[in-house]
Amino acid sequence: MQPGVCSSPRCPSASDSFPLSHLDPAECGSETSVDQQKQERAEFSTMSSVVSFYFSYLLCLCLGFVCVACVCYWNSQWRGGFAWDGSTLQFNWHPVLMVSGLVVLYGYGAVLYRVPLTWGQNKLPWKLLHAGVMLLCLVLSVLGLCAVFNFHNAKHTPNLYSLHSWIGICTTALFAMQWAVGVAGFLLPCSPMALRKLLKPVHVWMGASILSLSIVACISGINEKLFFVLRGNTTQAYASLPSEALFGNSLGVLLVVFGLVVLMILSNQKWQRPESRPEDMTYRPLLQEDN
Amino acid sequence: MQPGVCSSPRCPSASDSFPLSHLDPAECGSETSVDQQKQERAEFSTMSSVVSFYFSYLLCLCLGFVCVACVCYWNSQWRGGFAWDGSTLQFNWHPVLMVSGLVVLYGYGAVLYRVPLTWGQNKLPWKLLHAGVMLLCLVLSVLGLCAVFNFHNAKHTPNLYSLHSWIGICTTALFAMQWAVGVAGFLLPCSPMALRKLLKPVHVWMGASILSLSIVACISGINEKLFFVLRGNTTQAYASLPSEALFGNSLGVLLVVFGLVVLMILSNQKWQRPESRPEDMTYRPLLQEDN
């Protein structure tokens, strides 16, 4: 038997149920018991890696869902609910849309390529899904900005004066640029492979930075909102930590934990999608794809 | 000549002036012109990598210095200066010490291992310097917390109620844990090499996360402070963007840019210190070190 060529049923191929098996190329072609032990250890390590990925991914999904549920509950329970009429009820859409779009859905979209189940398949549909999810995030974020701009304009309050607003608007602008450059660089047929290779690490790094900036904007925004609305009588003052303050602070902590889990998934080298096959780097219309 | 053994003056060794040369092991042992061209390209790539590192490092140093200067200037120029008497002048130490310790000096300490000039030398003195700088950061941060606790206690204001304070105290606690685990794991002689290998990626990731959390705490803190102090008459209200507001917001943006530059340096694989030699992983007292 040639070294590196595997005929054993133990040896998984790239499209097998353990997609992380590419990480240890030494696991095939062994015939001695030492090599079999090595192979078993490699399979165990692969399996552990997949299990720990799915545990982190499930945690990410649950945390994101809880964050969206909490921000909706906060604004329904304590802030009077939602409307689109220039009142404070319109403002309430701002935190909901920014948390849902610029943090949670963005985080889900960012870790999409890390899901091992997608690795055996052609990359293009996943690229389109990634771009689609990110476009939805961008639309939600812009709607969230419209909510606060309309509210300010109706009250004749200046826009974009606080540090929170400066960070928030820069983050959304960076995100819009990132999306446009991403589509132009990775989806347009005229984009050369050399440019894609150059762009990829920048795109990944910029994506993680935008998520971090979103978290910065959210935390400063929640902190600012709680100081705004909880400055009445002593029992409701922020410093006396009424239930709304505890809930808002906990939402902030949850958002930070969600962001850290997403960044941990993104930064783990073992969980990165294997390098694309050359045919994935060139553009083919969706209908011509294998999958 | 054996492949991989280099006798050419073009071929740099690990301790040469281009310490990033370890990145391309194929650059030695070539005798044909094609190999020479490859070698020249590798040297050019190495040189570019070193130059771009030092450009980023200089940017990081300058941005950090400007951040510290700005936070000092803000509190001297607009907030009345400094004292340690329970008054608002004592509070003014809080932003100065947190920005200096938990962000700027922390950032400098985090990128210490990335400086190529240190790679040809024994790692232990740099480990001790890293631990020492981080201890200084921790002391400054704790002093910064003392400043705000004393101020609150003197005014009978509750401590730790805002989201800013929750994030800030968690960040400092995580940093203290990270420092203790770092010293126990990487400096104590009884720490086994297997544990060090396991700990290293967690330590690096946690270090980057703590810096991100520090930035989150700083931005929410500056935002909160500006809302607190600029709510007087209309010309000095935050919404009318007086000079203090513009200055404070700009400080916030600078801190974010500093954080992103540090995280970019930390995340760039090309700029990572080469793997330690086995003798660096075991403990030897400083006086016995080569350097």
TrEMBL record, chains A, B:
SMART domains: B561 (SM00665)
EC identifiers of the protein: 7.2.1.3
Residues spanning the membrane: 54-76, 96-116, 128-151, 163-190, 202-222, 246-267
Residue ranges constituting the Cytochrome b561 domain according to the UniProt record: 59-267
Reactions that this protein is recorded to catalyse: Fe(3+)(out) + L-ascorbate(in) = monodehydro-L-ascorbate radical(in) + Fe(2+)(out) + H(+)
Keywords: Electron transport, Endosome, Glycoprotein, Heme, Iron, Lysosome, Membrane, Metal-binding, Oxidoreductase, Translocase, Transmembrane, Transmembrane helix, Transport
Record localization: Late endosome membrane; Lysosome membrane
UniProt topology in membrane: Multi-pass membrane protein
Gene Ontology cellular component list: late endosome membrane; lysosomal membrane
Needed co-factor(s): heme b
PROSITE patterns: CYTOCHROME_B561 (PS50939)
InterPro entries from the UniProt entry: CYB561/CYBRD1-like, Cyt_b561/ferric_Rdtase_TM
MF terms in GO: metal ion binding; transmembrane ascorbate ferrireductase activity
A UniProt-annotated Pfam family: Cytochrom_B561
The protein's role, per its UniProt record: Transmembrane reductase that uses ascorbate as an electron donor in the cytoplasm and transfers electrons across membranes to reduce iron cations Fe(3+) into Fe(2+) in the lumen of the late endosome and lysosome. Reduced iron can then be extruded from the late endosome and lysosome to the cytoplasm by divalent metal-specific transporters. It is therefore most probably involved in endosomal and lysosomal cellular iron homeostasis.
Subunit-structure text: Homodimer.
Name recorded for this polypeptide: Lysosomal membrane ascorbate-dependent ferrireductase CYB561A3
Organism field: Myripristis murdjan
Lineage: Eukaryota, Metazoa, Chordata, Craniata, Vertebrata
Gene behind this protein: CYB561A3
